[in-house]
Amino acid sequence: MRRKTLVFFGLILFSLFLVAAKYDYVLEEGDKTVKASECDKCHKIIYEEWSKDAHSKAYTSDAFKKASKNYEMQECVSCHAPQQNADEKNLKTRPVHKDDGVSCTSCHLRDNMIYGPYKLEAKHKSEQDASFLKSESCAGCHVPTFQEWQASGSKKTCQECHMPRVEREVVQMGFFYSLILSKRMVGRHYLDHEQLFKDAARITGEAGKGTVKLSVTNRAGGHNMPTGKYGDYRIVFHTQVKDAEGNTVFTKDEIFSTLQKNGIAPQKTVTFEYPISVVTGKRYRVNSNLTYRVEGRPEFQVASWDGEIEGGK
User: Fold this and answer.
1) Residue 169 and residue 177: Cα distance in Å, rounded?
2) Considering the entire predicted model, what is its pTM?
3) What is the pLDDT of residues 90-139, one digit of tens each?
4) Who's near 277: CB < 8 A, 6+ residues apart?
5) Residue 294: beta bridge partners?
6) Which residue blocks in the chain are alpha helix, DSSP H?
7) 272 bridge partner residues
8) Which of 15, 185, 221, 263 fits a disulfide with 165 by CB distance 3.0 to 4.6 angstroms?
9) Strands (E), the chain
10) Domains of the chain: which residue ranges?
């Protein structure tokens, strides 16, 4: 029985070797680089996740079209449609399929070889590269954020927060292959902002008579909040005070922006104290919330706080 099992698996590996040459076209670079949809044939879940992620829309988004002056700023395109992952000075634009944005080949194809974090037997040639699990692999296109991460001393990698791993098969090729392919811990290729922001920040408050003191803490620990080199990434801290009848008596926005370079550093707290013009003896409701805003993307509430103040001294 054991011998039959070994022969069975040996035949499978041999058949994979025989068909590998058929898939050599996915190793081509430059004008012959394949579209991301080619990877969907085997890596269906990863392709589906990537299709929903901002990386797949890095070139086609309205925000990028506007920021790059309709693609005139070529230095921007090398990050938004890169041929391959590289350090900032050596990034080059992919000459074809730019609409794919930061595609499968951008990260996994270089020197006519497919690289990934695991050693796998595949239909195409592939090699293991452990650097896929390190923050350095993100540094080429995210230099300021990477530098902030380095300065923070965080032990968590970019991937741990932005590509949390889930257990599943790397490829989906039908029932037969599901019987012989083992599951692995695979990085998710879709960034779930709602989950990411869940514990990213905290608001605390102290409400007194005619005054409110509010503090915002960046709990994420890896980089500034917000972070980025280009574009207008914003965290808006909005505070509103209403009387018992629901009338707004005070409102204030504090804006943390990559353009203003005033992001909250990792594990740091900023505090605001507001005097409120109120009527003695009356009580007022205070609501503060922190919202992530980027042009062309949905808004996300990061944190909130509710309190009550009393009019008078």
Assistant:
1) 10
2) 0.85
3) 999 999 999 999 999 999 999 999 999 988 878 889 999 999 999 999 99
4) 210, 249, 250
5) none
6) 2-20, 44-52, 62-67, 74-80, 104-108, 143-152, 158-162, 175-180, 193-196
7) 214
8) 185
9) 109-110, 113-116, 126-128, 165-168, 184-187, 201-207, 211-218, 234-242, 248-257, 269-275, 283-293, 300-310
10) 2-191, 195-310
